[in-house]
Design goal:
Order of helices and strands: EHHHEHH
Radius of gyration: 14 Å
Number of domains: 1
Strand content: under 5%
Strand order of the largest sheet: 1-2
Helix content: 40-55%
Distance between the termini: 43 Å
Shape: globular
Number of helices: 5
């Protein structure tokens, strides 16, 4: 491992490799550091790749809505088995709709990856009771 590569955080170990879907439309303040990080990791489809692209445990708390502090947009990130429920289904469906539109703005390779990930999260949404 190169000295510039960060190890996967211990706090994420139980989540490593889980599917993740970020809202492709960055809702963060443009001048903030989290905006720039989000731009790097928003196309990741699992937590391992998101972390490699700069996703931190603090981003996890805010973007998933777990800490309840991000009121403007309650959930920017959905993690398989974590924050997909009846309470978040409407937001998940909104993010899926936004992501279908936004995916067209990416390269063919990334668009294909995003489209497959969107389909996976649509399936998760249909399984919500």
């Amino acid at each position: 491992m190169k000295s510039t590569e960060k190890k996967f955080p211990t706090s994420f170990k139980q989540l490593e490799g889980r599917a993740v879907m970020f809202c492709l439309v960055n809702q963060k303040k443009v001048s903030g550091k989290s905006y720039a990080r989000y731009e790097n990791y928003k196309v990741a489809t699992n937590l391992t790749d998101a972390h490699k692209a700069g996703f931190t445990s603090l981003d996890y708390q805010y973007d998933t809505g777990i800490n309840g502090r991000f009121k403007r947009i309650p959930v920017l990130c959905f993690v398989q088995g974590i924050n997909i429920s009846k309470d978040t289904k409407d937001i998940l469906l909104q993010v899926i709709k936004l992501n279908k539109e936004a995916a067209a703005n990416f390269s063919k390779e990334i668009k294909e990856k995003l489209t497959a990930n969107i389909a996976k999260f649509e399936k998760f949404a249909t399984e919500i009771k």
